[in-house]
Amino acid sequence: MPTRPGWVRSRKAVQALALIAFVGLLLLSRRDGLSGDLANIPMRLDPLLMLASTLAARALIVGSVLALATLLLTLVFGRAWCGWLCPLGTMLDLLPAKLGRGPRPAVPEGLRKVKYVLFFLILFAALLGNQTLLFLDPLAIFFRTLTAAVWPILDQIVTALETLLSQIPGFDGPISSLDAAIRPLILPAEPVSYQDAFGFASFFVVLVALNALAPRFWCRYLCPLGGFLGLISRVAVFRRTTAVSCSNCGLCAEDCPTGTIDAARSNASDPAECTVCMECLETCPLGAVKFKPSLSQAEGRPYDPRRREVLLTLGAAAVGIALFRSDLLAKRESPFLLRPPGSRESNADVVALTSCTRCNECVRVCPTGGLQPAVFQAGLQGLGTPLLVPRLGYCDYSCNACGQVCPTEAIPLLSLEDKQQQVIGKAYIDQNRCLAWSDHRTCVVCEEMCPLPAKAIQLEEQDVWVPDGGTVRLQLPHVVRDLCIGCGICEYRCPVSGDGAIRVYAPSVIAAF
Amino acid sequence: MPDISRRDFLRLAALVLGYAALAGIVEACKSVTTPRPPTSGPPDTSPPATAPGTEPAPTPPSSSMTPASALPASALPASPTPAASAGYPDLVVARHGEPEALVRRAVAALGGMERFVSPGSNVIVKPNVCVSYRTYTYAATTNPWVVGTLVKMAFEAGAKTVKVMDYPYGGAAAEAYARSGIAEQVQAAGGQMVVMSDRNYVRTRIPAGKWLKQTDVYNDVLKADVLINVPVAKVHSSAVVTAAMKNLMGVVRDRSAMHGNLGQAIADLNTLIKPDLTVVDCVRILTRNGPSGGKLSYVKKLDTVVASTDIVAADSFTATLFGLKPNDLAYVKIGAAMGLGRSDLSKLKVQDFSV
User: Would residue A418 count as lying in a domain?
Assistant: First the structure.
């Protein structure tokens, strides 16, 4: 590679473009927006997600070969993905938190091992059929945070501003036109709220705050994808080298955002840690830093994962999964654990979708806001997996968007006709709370809402005695269980406050009570 | 761009916020001093004064800058004198024809679109687009050509803007507009499909309401110069038959609140929202498993359009197409009693013809 100024600027431009492209793909991938194949590109570029879900699901998804591009890039240039493309890395560059003016505290070098440990844990867990730790994949973190926290906040702020400005006489028309122009493009059609969005936002804030300890703390010490790419980078073609003209001034070591340049080792760096950011190339007053091809394995470092440690992570993965399986939910599944259409897997594995990457693309694309990222509803191992919460939004009978955008087909790609046959759950009426059954009021909202042509809710006409004398003719709703697909629109619209008087139960629950 | 100091920035921000707050307060005061009157249709259908402020102001239409609270939505069609409108039939039934011909003939019999739409006015056409998963052949949503023809006619009468909107209960609006086929016809006619925005509702009191005293109503509908109500006739489990009066539920945000006393709530809402013209699409009617149906066997093709300036009369006649009597519909019975219109078909001047 040529050594001339401008590399850093080029890198920053590429980072900005990549960030815009990733965010743009996310925002534009909505129902009737970009095709699923385009929307899936960011996730499918992530080799950790693709490898883990292929291993966990024991099935190769055609789109996952895209991840080979990233692997190839890494084989040639090292962790250039981290320095040039990764949206989370770019965010961490953009938000360099630093506390006070003094020097940053020293972080022990041994901490770099954590990312390798996490990588091997994810790998072995995937082999054993579990993907819980993909919660820590950088792309999943980035997109999940955008979905569960940033997007609703953006919507709230835009709506509040529009409401405020439209009170100014004469502004109402233009504001409405502006809203009509941008909302279908990038904002939710209706306000969305995500359960525990605060938690997902806090997780991201913590990642950024860790920058106060060291720049790109996450990428240096924790990122499992970084660990994966780091291992490959040890045999990458292009390496950073210092020429004999190096005066050991130590400027490059000071500037290195991953802190891998070691002044004590004549300013050598570890290719597994270097994100090819090119800062040192421009910092060096003597032009002694070069990126040159070399066909050898990188020198070992004390924090490299050892065989014994790798074996230990295998054991830890096995024990961890066993622990999950001894969880209460594994024995008595939550009756309200509703999964996106078609994604429900074998009963033994209901608590965590096997190949779900926790990226929450499905959550964002759900037009009713009914799909929610699970926090603990699906057990610790289901953290970040999608749940349908009918009280917050129903499964739209005319929509199959979640399956279209799922990068690993954890939610299967279904035609609309097929999706309309999928049983998400079964509705049950609580007659003690139903307005018609218990209060003798005229309410048939659930029957009215049922989208099935044959109506899975039927009304029984009955004359009932009322306390103030006489009888009234009532329409009492009944669920036709064989027809019900559990879309949840009845529960969503049920006018009873709190929990609906009609609720959708998970399909494995044979009887609700 | 000149540098701006923090102090200046804060001053500017305070100024803007202060102005916005002031504007909000002024707007709020207006709605207190001049509660927006329930609008009234043409004089022959205007209800008895049920509450203060029901009299339509005889103001000519002014520019869209006029605050909504000062201008009744139907000030425009109020211009024909009672004597002039007395010559029109109370109800028109056009049968046996293409949707466009049916609509054109029916509206012509009522005095033509010019009777309702003055040049330069802002028109809203409110079809029934209840769900996003049915094409128009299932009769769950209004016939696209019926809607499209009304848009065309409004423009022919000189309308400045014609917006078409509804709030589906099942699925998203944009999807529903497209699948129903309405978007295509409306856009071909030059009209605008509006996705109703959640922030654009206004808490509105219903002075004449007996049970429903206030509700959030879509602002555009309150502000429109002309409102044309174009429902499709369907059976409906709780309302028995849904057509014109119930179709207006689409302009309020919280519809589940209305189900507690549906018949009265619909009538109450109709004291507030008064379409200038009602055209009931009976090209296809839904006879089973309404309001969304889903099988073609539930659909009956009648090739009929019912039009009236009297929304109660329109629903009363529509009920007969299902073999029912007007008073079988609770909201018709209550609405007639409240003076919203007339349900006794024998006393109406009905023009029933074949196209």
Answer: no
Q: What is the pLDDT of residue B245?
A: 95
Q: Which residue of A has its CA nearest to B234?
A: A448
Of B20, B170, B289, the CB nearest to A453: B289
Nearest to A397 among B171, B237, B293 (CB): B171
Is residue B52 scored above 80 in pLDDT?
no
Contacts of A172 in chain B (CB under 8 A): 219
pLDDT digit string, tens, across residues A323-355: 887 877 767 777 888 999 988 654 444 445 678
Are β-strands B91-95 and B350-354 bridged in parallel, bridged antiparallel, or unpaired?
A: parallel
B334, amino acid identity? I
Domains annotated on chain B, with CATH: 39-50+71-354 (3.40.50.11440)
> Mean pLDDT over all residues of chain B?
83
Judge residue A170's burial from the number of C-beta atoms within 10 Å of its C-beta, 0-12 exposed, 13-18 middle, 19 or more buried.
exposed
Q: What are the backbone dihedrals phi and psi of residue B56, each rounded to the nearest 5 degrees, phi first?
A: -70, 135
B74 and B273 in contact (C-beta within 8 Å)? no
Q: A39 and A162, same structural domain?
A: no
Dihedrals phi, psi of A247, to nearest 5 degrees: -100, 5
What domain count does chain A have?
3
> Which comes out higher in pLDDT, residue B245 or B24?
B245
- Would you state the pLDDT for residue B86? 61
- The answer to whether the Cβ–Cβ distance between A398 and B131 falls below 8 Å is yes
State yes or no: pLDDT of A279 exceeds 60.
yes
Convert the pLDDT of each residue in A233-267 to its tens digit. 999 999 888 888 888 888 888 888 898 998 888 88
Same domain flag for A58 and A182: no
Q: How far is B254 from chain A (nearest CA, A)?
A: 10
Nearest to B197 among A183, A444, A494 (CB): A183
Calculate the alpha carbon distances from A142 to A146, A196, B39 in Å.
6, 16, 51
Cβ-in-10-Å burial (0-12, 13-18, 19+) of A266 comes to exposed
- Candidates B29, B122, B133, B180: best to mutate against A (most CBs of A within 10 A) is B133
Q: How far away is chain A from the Cα of B117, in angstroms, using its nearest Cα?
A: 21
Q: What percent of chain B has pLDDT over 70?
A: 82
Q: Domain check: are A93 and A127 in the same one? A: yes
Distance (Å) of CA A106 to CA A111, A206, B337: 11, 19, 83
Return the number of CB contacts < 8 Å for A and B.
Answer: 118
Domain span including residue A175: 155-192
Same domain, A28 and A174: no
Q: Which residue has the higher pLDDT, A105 or A70?
A: A70
Q: Are A225 and A48 in contact (CB under 8 A)?
A: yes
Burial class for A111, CB neighbours closer than 10 Å (0-12, 13-18, 19+): middle
More confident residue, A58 or B111: B111
CB A224 within 8 A of CB A48: yes
The answer to whether the CB atoms of B179 and A398 lie below 8 A apart is yes
Residue A345 in contact with residue A397, Cβ under 8 Å?
Answer: no
Please provide the distance, in angstroms rounded to a whole number, between the alpha carbons at the two ends of chain A: 69
How many angstroms separate the CA of residue B96 from the nearest CA in chain A? 28
* Cα–Cα–Cα angle for B288, B292, B298, rounded to 5 degrees: 30
Residue-by-residue DSSP string for A308-357: HHHHHHHHHHHHHHHHHHTSHHHHS--TT---STT----GGGTTS-TT--
The one-character DSSP state at B141 is: B
- b/e per residue, B91-108, with b = 16+ CB within 10 A? bbbbbebebbbbbbbbbe
- The confidence band for A416, taking pLDDT boundaries of 50, 70 and 90, is very high
Chain B: residue whose CA lies nearest to A439: B260
Asked if A124 and A314 count as a contact pair (C-beta separation under 8 A), the reply is yes
Predicted confidence (pLDDT) at residue A464 exceeds the cutoff of 50: yes
pLDDT band (50, 70, 90) for residue A225? very high
